[in-house]
Automatic annotation (TrEMBL):
Domain Toprim stretches: 3-112
Protein name (Swiss-Prot/TrEMBL): DNA topoisomerase 1
Function description: Releases the supercoiling and torsional tension of DNA, which is introduced during the DNA replication and transcription, by transiently cleaving and rejoining one strand of the DNA duplex. Introduces a single-strand break via transesterification at a target site in duplex DNA. The scissile phosphodiester is attacked by the catalytic tyrosine of the enzyme, resulting in the formation of a DNA-(5'-phosphotyrosyl)-enzyme intermediate and the expulsion of a 3'-OH DNA strand. The free DNA strand then undergoes passage around the unbroken strand, thus removing DNA supercoils.
Residue span of region Disordered: 824-857
Quaternary structure annotation from Swiss-Prot or TrEMBL: Monomer.
Keyword Ribosomal protein: no
Catalytic activity, reaction form: ATP-independent breakage of single-stranded DNA, followed by passage and rejoining
Comp. bias regions, Basic residues: 848-857
Interaction with DNA, as annotated region: 162-167
Site (Interaction with DNA): 33, 138-139, 142, 154, 285, 473
Family: Belongs to the type IA topoisomerase family.
InterPro entries: Topo_IA (IPR000380), Topo_IA_2 (IPR003601), Topo_IA_AS (IPR023406), Topo_IA_cen (IPR013497), Topo_IA_cen_sub1 (IPR013824), Topo_IA_cen_sub2 (IPR013825), Topo_IA_cen_sub3 (IPR013826), Topo_IA_core_domain (IPR023405)
């Protein structure tokens, strides 16, 4: 029997650590936090700010197992991660398992290697209450902000919305960038490029050093260029160098994995977590760029053996951020002799970390930069060609050149041919192209992380969940922005002749960048108008600094909470009482047919257009906006077009055909079947021929691909990926199957596995009442609709077994439900008739006239 119990927060970590410890140690996982604030209710005493922690239902069995293991152990080692969240996990374990200081030890390590684990065992400490309090302060403050601001949004904007201290600031950044883009006025200028030939007919690409504001100026320059002899006026060669970037922090890893590997922030952190837990890299939540002496020596040894002495340049980097948490290292490999690992996806991220760390310990790259000036004294401006040669590659040998999103693709510097001052050059072609200035780019995930870090908002552990939350809340999305077209003028000088042409240029298109949704903009505007301090970047950064002070023992967390809440709560009460409702309503103009006002706003089913007023004799009519349309930018003309929907076409195969738009987007309705119109296709452009094509495609997609026990099997792709359908059961198809070429044995396997799972799911099922007793991960549960209820113990205080539950009557189950939720079966009262609103802006959203299509799989 093990005398030592080690508790970590993840099974993968437990498995790795168990390998390094002998039979005297038993390693168990807590699966993250074993207790937290309750899911229902705030769970905080607002008089004292004391949290009411509870063990969640799905962790009760685990806690029982851990308590049993604790009784058998002489010493319990709490080995959760070395950060505030990890410290809080250790503290919750100590509290819930009733561990005393004499039978518990706290150990920390920033890498899961044998040496690091054994060293941690030799140097235990107790729980750092300052770090625990910093985590509690963040958790409690964020819970209060969310729980008090969200109901204000339900009342003033729309039910079901949420607000949060960091998420709302992140949304504000996206919204403000979008408004900046809308307000941007592009300015045109003419940029000149020349291709010149030296005496050996080698090409030299050069740019004019000044742009022209007007077409006439550019044309005048080209006319002058026809008459002059171009010469090399100057050749300047300068030595230079490039130095490697520091090793990765959480933020820089997320940014680089995005630009080099195309990984989103959540995926990067998931893979990094696995690399850490399997012992390949150091802890992945850090804002430090420091390396240990052991790591510097390990990198040096590898560089000497792989590249040679001239490539080695050991150095340490200092963290610039004053808010860097705790004494972590940068993210680095734990063993530099391990160059690759087996898993392909993990290896891509590992390689990035490995090469970045190695490069940080390598010599600077040496370059030679050449600038050639080309022109003539008669010309008002001269051309300049730039190029560079790498004399010594240094760190570039391991990592290559790092480019950011903001790098201009046109500035790629090339190798230039040899020329001498005074040498005469022939021009092959000189072009003057009209170029327009561009607004600031929309944020990518990595770009938003960089901005949050720059503003001091959030910390390494919060970037990924913040990015995920604002998407889950549907305040921002990454929908594709269709480009617009504009005309540009291009003039070319070739063989003493100027050719002028007008070309079409696409601009403003975007994909995989953050764009605010309509509801995101309305919520942001409401919050910035009414909670300007909470949404203030400086305030949010100062709160983070307060958490840092608590972590270092410089401030008491409940005092910080008292100060914050004394200012925050009165503001909540004031806004709830006095603020106007917000729905983004905007008057677009007057409908020429009816003479009624046309407005756009957020309605019950999303962004919509309304013709007429609520108190008109004739009820107003509604239409939903199409994907890509926005209540802040839609024009009267585009709005009126929406009222052409729905419209009927001719019958097809004896069934009616209608084109419309509903809650799930534009559709073709054929009989009673709703078929989504392909993304980016304008429903108003759908004619009979195209509608029949869409119907035919749907028929083909819905055609049975096989059968199971005489019943047809169909397939499709839905919200959760590829699936097959048997009777009314949807069965997800995992990636290990070839979805495009499923065999009969594949189908049998998938259907039988699903049927077996469904058969084991229900102990009893009363379908009409929507009540069931089901097997769940941690034991049987009762479900009523979407709600889950606990199964009480028997009168003799023992648990119900599965066989017992098969005999339980529905009346008994209803008693269990009512005991936990007295209103579970209460009849819903019809809402009382509302009084006429005082202001148009407060008009309740009316369901659009368009019938919404059924949800697609």
């Amino acid at each position: 029997m093990s005398k030592n119990l080690v508790i970590v927060e993840s099974p993968a970590k437990a498995k790795t650590i168990q390998k390094y410890l002998g039979s005297d140690y038993e390693v168990k996982s807590s699966f993250g936090h074993i207790r937290d604030l309750p899911k229902k209710g705030m769970g905080i005493d607002l008089a004292t700010f004391s949290p009411d922690y509870e063990v969640s239902a799905d962790k009760k069995k685990l806690v029982t197992e851990l308590k049993s293991a604790v009784k058998k152990a002489d010493m319990v080692w709490l080995a959760s991660d070395e950060d505030r969240e990890g410290e809080a996990i250790a503290w919750h374990l100590a509290e819930e398992l009733k561990l005393k200081p004499d039978n518990r030890k706290r150990i920390v390590f920033h890498e899961i290697t044998k040496n690091a684990i054994l060293k941690a065992i030799e140097n235990p400490r107790d729980i750092n209450q300052n770090l625990v309090n910093a985590q509690q302060a963040r958790r409690v403050l964020d819970r209060i902000v969310g729980f008090e601001m969200s109901p204000v949004l339900w009342k003033k904007v729309k039910p079901g919305l949420s607000a949060g201290r960091v998420q709302s600031v992140a949304v504000r950044l996206v919204v403000e960038r979008e408004k900046e883009i809308r307000a941007f006025t592009p300015k045109a200028s003419f940029k000149l490029d020349g291709i010149f030939l030296n005496k050996t007919s080698q090409e030299i690409a050069a740019k004019l050093k000044k742009d022209f504001d007007r077409e006439e100026e550019a044309e005048k320059f080209l006319e002058l260029a026809k008459t002059v002899e171009f010469k090399v006026l100057n050749v300047e060669t300068k030595p230079g160098s490039r130095s490697a970037s520091a090793p990765f922090t959480t933020s820089t890893l997320q940014q680089e994995a995005s630009s080099r590997l195309g990984y989103n922030v959540t995926n990067t952190m998931r893979l990094a977590q696995r690399l850490y837990e399997e012992g390949h890299i150091t802890y992945m939540r850090t804002d430090s760029v420091n390396l240990s002496q052991e790591a510097i020596e390990g990198a040096k040894t590898q560089i000497l053996s792989e590249y040679g002495k001239e490539y080695s340049s050991p150095r340490n980097y200092t963290t610039k951020s004053s808010s860097a948490q705790e004494a972590h290292e940068a993210i680095r490999p734990t063993d530099f002799s391990v160059k690759t690992i087996g898993d392909v996806q993990l290896n891509k991220l590992y390689q990035l970390i490995y090469r970045r760390t190695l490069a940080s310990q390598m010599a600077n790259a040496k370059i030679e930069k050449t600038v050639i000036e080309i022109g003539n004294a008669k010309l008002p401006q001269h051309f300049e060609a730039q190029g560079e040669v790498i004399i010594f590659d240094g760190f570039l040998r391991a990592y290559g050149i790092v480019k950011t999103e903001d790098d201009d693709e046109e500035n790629n510097e090339k190798l230039l041919p040899k020329v001498t001052v005074g040498e005469v050059l022939d021009y092959k072609k000189i072009t003057a192209t009209e170029k327009f200035t561009r607004p600031s780019a929309r944020y990518t995930e990595a770009g938003l992380v960089r901005k949050l870090e720059e503003l001091g908002i959030g910390r390494p552990s919060t970037y990924a969940p913040t990015i995920q939350t604002i998407q889950n809340r549907e305040y921002v999305d990454k929908r594709e922005i269709e480009p617009q077209t504009r005309e540009i003028v291009k003039m070319s000088l070739v063989k003493d002749k100027i050719k002028k042409e007008v070309l079409d240029e696409k601009f403003g298109g975007d994909k995989n960048k953050f764009v605010p949704t309509d509801i995101g903009e309305v919520v942001n505007d409401f919050l910035t108008d009414n909670f300007s301090e909470i949404l203030d970047f400086g305030f949010t950064a100062r709160v983070e600094e307060s958490f840092d002070e608590i972590a270092h023992g410089g401030q008491k967390w409940k005092e910080m909470m008292t100060d914050f809440y004394s200012k925050f709560h009165p503001r909540i009460e004031d806004v709830e009482e006095n603020a106007d409702r917000a729905n983004g309503e905007r008057l677009l103009g007057v409908d020429p047919k009816t003479g009624k006002n046309v407005t756009t706003r957020i309605g019950r089913f999303g962004p919509m257009i309304q013709i007429g007023e609520q108190d008109d004799e004739e009820k107003p009519v509604f239409a939903s906006l199409l994907s890509g349309q926005n209540i802040a930018t839609i024009t009267l003309e585009d709005a009126l077009e929406l009222f052409k929907l729905p419209f009927d076409l001719n019958e097809f195969e004896g069934q009616t055909v209608t084109i419309g738009v509903g809650r799930f987007g534009p559709y073709v309705k054929w009989g009673e079947t709703y078929i989504s119109i392909p993304k980016g296709e304008d429903p108003l452009s759908i004619d009979q021929t195209r509608a029949e094509e869409i119907i035919a495609e749907k028929k083909l997609a819905d055609a049975p691909i096989a059968s199971y026990k005489g019943e047809p099997i169909t397939k499709g792709t839905g919200r959760f990926g590829p699936f097959i359908k048997y009777q009314s059961i949807f069965i997800n198809v995992p990636k290990r199957y070839n979805f495009e070429n499923l065999s009969q044995s594949d189908i049998n396997e998938l259907v039988e596995a699903k049927l077996e799972k469904e058969a084991n799911r229900y102990i009893q099922h009363w379908e009409a009442e929507k009540i069931s007793i089901e097997n769940a991960r941690w034991g049987p549960i009762v479900k009523h609709g979407k709600n889950i209820y606990k199964i009480p113990k028997k009168k003799d205080d023992t648990k119900y077994e599965a066989d017992d539950l098969k005999e339980i009557s529905i009346d008994e189950v209803k008693k269990w439900i009512t005991a936990q939720d007295p209103k579970a079966f209460a009849e819903k009262k019809k809402p009382a008739a509302k009084k006429a609103p005082a202001k148009k802006a407060t008009t309740a959203a009316k369901k659009p006239a368009v019938k919404k299509p059924a949800a697609k799989k």
